[in-house]
Amino acid sequence: MLRLTWAQPEDLLGHELRQAEQDGREPSVIAARWTAAGGPPAPDRAGASPVPVSPYLRLLAQDLLDELADLPSSLTEREPTDLERIKALCPDWPVRGPGPRATGPTRSSAAPAETRLEAAWLGRAAGCLLGKPVEKLPLDGIRRLARATGNWPLRTWFTARGVPPELVAAHPWNRRSAATSLAENIDGMPEDDDLNYALLNLLLLQRYGRGFTTADVARLWLDELPAGRTFTAERVAYRNLLSGVEPPRTARHRNPFREWIGALIRADVHGWTNPGDPAAAAEQAHRDATLTHTANGVHAAMFTAAAVAEAATGAHDVHHCLRTGLCVVPPGSRLARAVRHAVRLARGTEDFDSVVDELHARHRAYHWVHAVPNTALIAAALTHADGDFTGSICRAVAGGWDTDSTGATAGSIAGLLAGGPRALPDRWTTPLKNRLATSVGDFNGIGFDTLAHLTHRESLRS
Predict the structure, then answer these.
(1) Could you tell me the residue range of the domain that residue 37 belongs to?
(2) Averaged in consecutive runs of 10 residues, what is the pLDDT profile of the chain (462 residues)?
(3) What angle do CA 349, 355, 360 make, to 5 degrees?
(4) Per-residue confidence (pLDDT) for residue 103, from 0 to 100
(5) Domain ends where: 44, 69, 94?
(6) Do residues 196 and 62 both lie within one domain?
(7) Is 53 in contact with 64 (CB distance < 8 Å)?
(8) Has residue 212 been placed in a domain?
(9) Does any domain span residue 202?
(10) Given 20, 46, 69, which residue is the final one in a domain?
(11) pTM of the complete model
């Protein structure tokens, strides 16, 4: 039986009920109707419940999804999606940079831009790959698996060698990823959506330029992105496009994942191609994100793009970059508050396990793919590691939640800060073999050096 993940109305409803509680709506009456009818809760970690519901419950779920969407939110003013309203709430919105982007280093010790971009691509890949085998596992499972091989605090790839069978039975490696992402199995960078979206946004800029629209993003996806390579909010938005729903309604229509991490993982290219211009990076990320996300889901993408744009100059430390990211996020939003708390916690706590425990306690109401806790974790990892590459990706992955995505974003920023591929430890880059697998366009098998060249070329286009 085919149970399509992230798409069944009966599964979407439970997630929408949770989303409503978090974004200031009052869903209790609708929740009671669903429970009284025998409706199941949302799957906790999987994308689909194991068995289908009756036709009646499926129709009811569709109706209730629409009713939930019409409920007013008390957080709308603090957490807008519209760009002009976001800017109006951000007193320190960055000044747009003039003219073409810088082509060289911004200080005598900075590496050439193309070299930094290669380190960013490699860092994104390595951080993603580190997190892939433990994606979806609870925090305790990640810690136990790493400790079983003497790899805690986390400092290198996960391995199945030496792990007791009973521990693997209790906390199985990610089924789809173990064959390509455990230390003994790595042979180049396997396909992952955290890299696919970077490739798509490179294509987006090549095809439409900096002035692309959200509709252009949709066109590109329909042309180049296999539907089966989409997940959560992206899958719902893709389905909405095929049903004739137009952007930006694609992000809102029966899409309970619109504040999850999907837009954040698409943001790096917008920062890479706008070095020193965080405002331009954030605005590009906004146009991209609003195809699939709203409010904090969009804010997380803008935060990431702006922080990456500052890191891409080679002129600033990680703490400055994170502060710049916050300049494009409404300060009263849940995301901004979570990031500020995470940074304070990381700066004031020596033991990173204690930082993670506090973050998990504070954000326990959120799904493990939600943008708010994952963005907070990225900021905490980068802060605690002071931007060091190994420290940043290992802390991000060791923090749990969406491990491959947090590792990827932390690796991108820390790679830029490192300055070039030679500054990254060989144990992270050599197994990648300068080769990326993907189903996007003609990129399959491409090298990270070539990707850096193509990205740098887009950064120079006006």
Answers:
(1) 9-69
(2) 84 96 96 96 86 94 96 97 98 74 42 94 98 97 98 98 97 95 98 98 98 98 95 98 98 98 98 98 98 98 98 97 98 98 98 98 97 99 98 98 98 98 98 97 96 98 84
(3) 160
(4) 39
(5) 69
(6) no
(7) no
(8) yes
(9) yes
(10) 69
(11) 0.96
pLDDT at 186: 98
Total structural domains in the chain? 2
Task: Kindly state whether residues 271 and 331 are assigned to the same domain.
Answer: yes
Same domain, 65 and 97: no
Same domain, 65 and 193: no
Q: What is the pLDDT of residue 104?
A: 40
> In terms of domains, do 202 and 62 share one?
no
34/117 same-domain check? no
